[in-house]
Amino acid sequence: MEKVISENLDKIIFITKKDSNKVRLLNISNKCCVEVHTEDNMICLRGKIEIYKSEKGKIQILSKNYIERLEYSGSHKYCILIFNTLKATLYIDGDLRRYVL
Questions:
Q1: pTM (global) more than 0.70
Q2: Among 15, 17, 39, 51, which one is least packed by beta carbons within 10 Å?
């Protein structure tokens, strides 16, 4: 799975193979989280993922560079995952802070 772009903390777009274990599990439940850690800080984004498998959806969502790259490696093998954040939990210098987006 590869991150393509993020829009603030609200939305993160990934690409991955359609036959991956991640996609199989997301078809069962689209709830998930994304975590980023540094030495003293952490952010945990909780939300839901939408799966886009159609070629038309890929063209509408991805930049021209990604479309060309996917075409080179077999675009039909890949899908787009769009993560939409519902809640964010931050630990800054060990202090807990929660946000609802």
A1: yes
A2: 39
pLDDT tens, per residue, the chain with 101 residues: 888 888 888 999 999 999 999 999 999 999 999 998 888 889 999 999 999 988 888 888 888 888 888 888 887 888 999 999 999 999 888 788 877 76
Going by C-alpha positions, the residue among 56, 75, 63 that lies closest to residue 16 is: 75
- Which residue is associated with the tokens 């998930």? 32
Domains of the chain in start order, with CATH, are 2-100 (2.30.110.10)
Spatial neighbors of 28 by CB under 8 A, at least 6 apart, are none
User: 3-class secondary structure for the chain?
Assistant: CEEEEEECCCEEEEEEECCCHHHHHHHHCCEEEEEEECCCCEEEEEEEEEEECCHHHHHHHCCHHHHHHHHHHCHHHEEEEEEEEEEEEEEECCEEEEEEC
